[in-house]
Predict the 3D structure of the following.
Amino acid sequence: MKSAICSGCGRTIENNFLYCPWCGHSRIVKNDDSLDLMFNKLAESKKASRRNQLYQMEQELDNMEQELSVLVLSAEMHK
């Protein structure tokens, strides 16, 4: 197993330990900025997805409007 140095007491510990067994120092890095960044990316991704869905719906509505215009014109011609 790989080992690491505890930044709390300087002793050698196993790399997969989350806490130092000698002094209890946490090896878990808490970075609120990275959490905020992750949530911001998620929000932007959702916004982009919604914009894409709206764009596709707009295209479908345009196509249906064109088809309806053709049907109305065809019905008027057959009167």
